[in-house]
């Protein structure tokens, strides 16, 4: 009996050893499989070749599913694994891929590839470029566009003053456009909202809506970068663009825009009129090399010599530097500034100092 019991104990120990060994082997295989899968997926999420930036033409047909797009990208060597790409897109909740002809490369990350496919950056030839410089007014912008496209300046201005169309734009761009632009004193609703930049189009004569909305897209893109700062200063986009336009029109190439902004804010704080000449010129509706005392009496809500506070709306399109200055003015005690014939700007604290500098430099003109 003892021999049989001992034998059974040995058999049980052997079975336990076998089970332990088999379990260990299975666990090791599982760990190797998991580790291998992890490394494979990690590799598949990386660019195919970070050094290979040679453009590869990729055609995405209309109606292509994510699976079909993934297969095309894998076939072209843009991604390593179509299945991994498909699950990555699903996990990140990406959508809205657009059909088109693309130029991608093997050095692109998955996010860069996805961004290209979502934004529609296709390899179409640019047929029209329109450059809008900083500080231009709406009538000047209309003239530039008319010259480049063949539209008449008058019909472009009519489009930008079409109330039905403006209402459509307010619905499309609620983050930057509001009923403020319909203030009864505002000359042109979209004044100051068409961002200064170079715009490329794939048509020789795109629609007026396409051109206008490309500029509004850019304005929205820029302003949304400063959403927090606008909130801190309790600025609406309209108020920000209005202040920025004053800074833009007063600035020269050598100007410290932050100091100009500080003068405006210092005046607003003490209830002093802004007294900035560009608003007078805007009120007059014409350009002059010099503003005379009789001009300062023009009866217009834009005239900041006779009306305190900001004008009803922007008087020109401001660049990003002026927008930044409006949001982050310098901390100064300056109440006045004067541009010299050489483009320098002299800042002073008192009217006496300002008049002294003004007499000095006006005498040189």
UniProtKB/TrEMBL annotation:
Biological process GO annotation list? cell wall organization; peptidoglycan biosynthetic process
What reaction is this protein's catalytic activity? a peptidoglycan chain = a peptidoglycan chain with N-acetyl-1,6-anhydromuramyl-[peptide] at the reducing end + a peptidoglycan chain with N-acetylglucosamine at the non-reducing end
Keyword Transmembrane helix present in the record's keywords: the answer is yes
Major location, coarse class?
membrane
Q: Where in the cell is it found?
A: Cell membrane
The answer to whether the entry has keyword GTP-binding is no
- One GO cellular component term: plasma membrane
- InterPro entries (UniProt xref): MLTG-like
Topology term for the membrane:
Single-pass membrane protein
Annotated site (Important for catalytic activity), which positions? 250
Name the residues that span the membrane.
Answer: 18-41
One Gene Ontology molecular-function label: lytic endotransglycosylase activity
Q: What is its EC number?
A: 4.2.2.29
Q: Which family does it belong to?
A: Belongs to the transglycosylase MltG family.
**What's this protein's name?**
Endolytic murein transglycosylase
């Amino acid at each position: 009996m003892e021999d049989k019991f001992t034998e059974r104990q040995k058999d049980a120990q052997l079975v336990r050893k076998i089970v332990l060994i088999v379990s260990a082997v299975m666990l090791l295989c599982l760990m190797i499989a998991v580790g291998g899968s992890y490394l494979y997926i990690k590799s598949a999420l990386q660019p195919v070749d970070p050094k290979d930036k040679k453009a590869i033409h990729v055609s995405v047909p209309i109606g292509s599913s994510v699976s079909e797009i993934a297969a095309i990208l894998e076939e072209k060597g843009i991604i390593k694994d179509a299945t991994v790409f498909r699950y990555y897109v699903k996990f990140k909740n990406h959508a809205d891929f657009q059909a088109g002809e693309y130029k991608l490369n093997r050095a692109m990350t998955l996010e860069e590839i996805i961004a290209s496919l979502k934004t529609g950056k296709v390899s179409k030839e640019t047929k029209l470029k329109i450059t809008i410089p900083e500080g231009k007014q709406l009538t000047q912008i209309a003239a530039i566009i008319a010259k480049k496209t063949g539209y008449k300046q008058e019909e472009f201005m009519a489009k930008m003053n079409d109330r039905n169309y403006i209402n459509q734009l307010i619905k499309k761009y609620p983050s930057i456009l509001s009923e403020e632009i319909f203030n009864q004193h505002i000359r042109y609703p979209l004044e100051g909202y068409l961002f200064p930049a170079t715009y490329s189009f794939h048509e020789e004569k795109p629609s007026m809506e396409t051109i206008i909305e490309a500029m509004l897209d850019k304005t929205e893109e820029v302003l949304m970068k400063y959403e927090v700062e606008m909130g801190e200063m309790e600025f609406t986009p309209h108020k920000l663009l209005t202040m920025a336009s004053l800074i833009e029109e007063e600035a020269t190439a050598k100007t410290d825009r932050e100091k100009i902004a500080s003068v405006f804010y210092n005046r607003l704080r003490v209830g002093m009129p802004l007294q900035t000449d560009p608003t007078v010129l805007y009120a007059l509706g014409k350009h002059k090399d010099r503003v005379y005392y009789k001009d300062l009496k023009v009866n217009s809500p834009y005239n900041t010599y006779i009306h305190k506070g900001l004008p009803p709306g922007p008087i020109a399109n401001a660049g990003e530097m002026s927008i930044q200055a409006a949001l982050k003015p310098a901390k100064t005690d300056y109440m006045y500034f004067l541009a010299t014939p050489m483009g320098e700007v002299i800042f002073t604290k008192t009217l006496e100092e300002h008049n002294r500098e003004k007499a000095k430099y006006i005498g040189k003109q």
